[in-house]
Amino acid sequence: PIPSLSFIAGNGFTSFVADGDANQGADHVTFKLSPDVGLILLSAPDLRVIDAVNYGPQQTDVSQGRSPSGSDTLTSFAQPTAGGPNPGPAGVISVTNVTQAVTALIDVTTSSWRYDNSGVNQGTGWRAPAFNDSGWASGVGLFGFETTPQEYPYPLQTAIPAPNQANGHVTVYYRTHFQWTSGMTGFELVSTNYVDDGAVYYLNGAEVGRLRISANPVVYSTLAANQPSEGQAEVLTFPTNSLVTGDNVMAVEVHQSSCCGSGTSSDDVFGMSLSAVVYTTNVITQTFGVPIVLNEVLANNQTLTNFNGHTADFVEIYNPSTNAVDLSDLSLSDDSNAPRKWVFPSNTTIAASGYLLLYCDAGSPVSGTNTGFGLGEKGDAVLLFHRPSAGGALLDGVRFGLQAADYSIGRVPNGAGNWTLTVPTPGALNNAAGLGGFGALKINEWMADPANGGDWFEVYNSADQPVALGGLFLTDNLTDKTQSPIPPLSFIGVRANAFVRFTADGDVGAGADHVTFNLKKSGEAVGIYSPAAVLIDGVVFGPQQTGVSQGHFPDGTANVVSFAQTASPGESNYLPLSNVVVNEVLSHTDPPLEDAVEFYNPSGSDVNIGGWYVSTTPDDLKKYRVSDGTIISAGAFKVFYEYQFNPTSGPSVPFTFNSAHGDQVYLSQSDAGGNLTGYRAVAKFGAAANGVSFGQYTNSIGAVEFVAMSRRSFGADTPTSVDQFRTGTGAANPYPLVGPIVINEIMYQPASVGGSLDEDTSAEFIELRNITSTNVSLFDPAAVTNTWKIGGGVGFAFPQNVILPAGGFLLVVNFDPAVNPTVPAAFRTKYGVAPGVPLYGPYGGNLNNTGESIELFKPDPPQLPPHPDAGFVPYVLVDQINYSALSPWPVGAAGTGNSVQRKVGADFGDDPANWIATAPTAGSPNAVTTPGDTDGDGLPDAWELQYFPSISDPSATPNADPDSDGFTNLQEYLAGTDPKDPNSSLKIDSVTITGSQTSLRFTAVAGKTYTVLYRDDLSNGAWLILKNVSAQAATGPIDVTDSGAGASGTRFYRVATP
Fold this sequence. Notes:
Elements lengths: L37 E6 L5 E7 L7 E4 L7 E4 L13 E16 L5 E5 L20 E4 L2 E3 L12 E2 L11 E10 L7 E9 L1 E6 L2 E6 L22 E5 L7 E10 L12 E21 L4 E6 L14 E6 L6 E2 L4 E3 L8 E2 L5 E2 L4 E6 L19 E6 L8 E7 L7 E5 L5 E6 L7 E2 L8 E7 L7 E7 L5 E2 L4 E3 L8 E2 L5 E2 L6 E6 L19 E6 L5 E7 L7 E4 L7 E4 L11 E2 L4 E6 L9 E5 L6 E2 L4 E3 L8 E2 L5 E2 L4 E5 H4 L17 E8 L5 E10 L8 E5 L5 E5 L13 H4 L15 E7 L17 E6 L5 E2 L1 E2 L2 E5 L1 E4 L3 E2 L5 E2 L4 E4 L9 H10 L7 E2 L10 E9 L15 E10 L14 E4 L12 E4 L22 H7 L21 H7 L12 E7 L2 E8 L5 E6 L8 E6 L6 E7 L9 E5 L2
Parallel strand pairs: 8-9, 40-49, 60-61
Antiparallel strand pairs: 1-2, 3-4, 5-16, 6-7, 6-10, 8-16, 10-15, 11-14, 11-16, 12-13, 12-15, 17-18, 17-26, 18-23, 19-22, 20-21, 20-24, 24-25, 26-27, 27-28, 29-30, 29-38, 30-35, 31-34, 32-33, 32-36, 36-37, 38-39, 41-42, 41-50, 42-47, 43-46, 44-45, 44-48, 48-49, 50-51, 52-53, 52-64, 53-60, 54-59, ...
């Protein structure tokens, strides 16, 4: 049933997702659609039929519907428009109205089958209609055993053991009967099949179809060629020449893909339906529409600027007719659920044989020539809709996949042909781009176990021309060649744009750069295949390290290396220079300063960087050549100033750093012949405040970050002239810039509600604190509409005129405090938030329970004319926290009711040593402050000196484990245990089970509070609180009893301390 209080607008549309999981939302239904034949019925509450449609066999990615919307004409749509108006026919056309009559012969779940799982070879006689199968067992589908039954749309009703189980065999035989009493012509036999792994089908003894069986002859021991995708329905059309009037016998033998060893198949499934489908075709000629077409689309524009100086995407519309066309009230969108996203202004016309260019610039206001929304370079759609007064039908549309940078897609020939890759020609005749061959594609880099985010791999185009990727296949099983198709109209570019990252997370709905599989840390394969399933390139790799990618070095060669520090998805592979680093960059300058970059030699030997190159783009790494004989002494610095890399003449390609959008700097090593070796130093940075430099900073766990510095350190940093500034020869970096506002507390995974597994996301929050002694405006006083923002994993823009007082706090939540007063009231009560602490929200999304980045930005003054970016508002990063639920970040805040809190507001934030997990203190000072910590490693000096000779002792570092008990010094400090005693650590010492009760014992350190948590399934649900243990006066054992453990069968425990 459709949930109550569900509505549809007048002349509107509502789409439902047929995934069989109504728990996903009111727009999800409890059933799935068959790709074979089916019935969709809309009924009133009294079950009176409102409307119904029967459909026949479906094409992949092609929808069917009424055209125009609401009419009696059913047709197919290459451009599905779920939730929006259906495509409407244009011009004088012939519409083919297809109807079908369906006769069900065999049903998946109700038809009875005889089957033989004896393990005896039945030869060929069992296929014959007269074969006596009365001694076989009988049952209904689905048959078999499946390790992931949830992937199938029907239940497994008849159990048949898998080959790796007792009484399981490599081949199972099936037979059933059906009756046919109609004529022998004018119909098709269509079968929908669920088979794991392969099958051969016989109708009255004659073979009529196969799935993944290629051997001839087929015998009992024949193996299927490979495994299918779990739960996938596969449609076959059978010939009818062996069908007879009266009784018919369908016989099927199901074979597994492996047997009789360690790799023996662990599941087997069989089920099928069979229908006779009769089609009737009626051709109707009608006149519709507006004679215009979408002609060209640029969705990945990196260099072509518009009249505003922006590199905006664009859509070109063409009028192939001999008359001007009125476009008033037509609309353009990239979302079929929002067809009126941008509406053509009144009196908009397009001349005969003329063009209309529309920009898709999300960074500029909506206007008569700018839609206000951008296009997705990883795949998107452009949809042109008729005016509502004419029915609002889809007039034209194109859906595309991955787009090559600075190439458009367009119709060739102009206005009428198929879509292909084109050279951008806005407002002019389309020009097809030359395409390279598939053979230039290489699997270039892969990451099977990233520290954060999904698995990924990279495809590289080694040719000098772009290559069409649409219709190719990606796979992690070189025997399953067509596992993950790349969407149509996908392309890969050249040179710096010759790299495409694919995310291997199984979520193809997330975009054209996602594939149907994941990568295995233990090792496997990745391959790319042609449309004919011929291998283009593939790699096989072994066990992988967490956070370390592997790939070819140099790009596309046979040499494979690991990239421990320089994983570069979507970019050219490189290895880091060991003896030179980018140490400091100044990008936003006014006289007497100018742009500058500082390099540092951390090694013990001098380095000759003469002949090496400095650049800001991987597309051209040779912009500035360092003079021959340039030496960076051991432990010394070398600064290059703007007058050197931005000359007015000479062989260099002049450049400056982009302070508004952020930039990067590359120092590339070259050999004596000027050839790049693939080793380079790289630093990337965001928008910059005026006069503030970025520099390298290494936190307590050894992570190197390139962040804003508290002061410049080029050597002559308070000059009275640019000439004086240029005398600086470099210096050690100061401490990072912190404040004036910091991210002070994060509640990313509140405790579950009422003991259930449901998380109370309304209890999430991000706390900001003003660590200065003056008020801070969270907006630009000269442009009050430009307000501070939160980005990263969640998004929020502060309202205008927000001022955070000196030392003050505010909380950002994921509900709107102004909508329902009871929600913020409950929130304040839960956390004891004072009335004077403001709440703002909602932020977009939820805080990730495993960890993500939270970023705080402030607006810089807008760019001024005549700058090409005039009007653009840069946003400068103020604070960034890449928190994690895993060590070395505090581990006691995931679902325990604790938050993570900054120890010292003025200390660098993106460092786990500066955070602790403890009871939330929303809107008030955090519970813990750090004692003196001279070396800033997160371990107080007093604690280090208690156990080690000095704070600089190698055994005293946060990640050291001097007692080899598996706990680092940082963890021992947080737990209050002895870092030099292997018997002193935070762990459950013993577990005793008595009847239905479980008793746990651990050692509590005096003055520490603890939480004992449990869960019954490590793969699902959250950790639940069993007991909170208050601080003890003396160190000693603590016993905790769980009386509910017996009912769960298996239970997991852990103990945490703030």
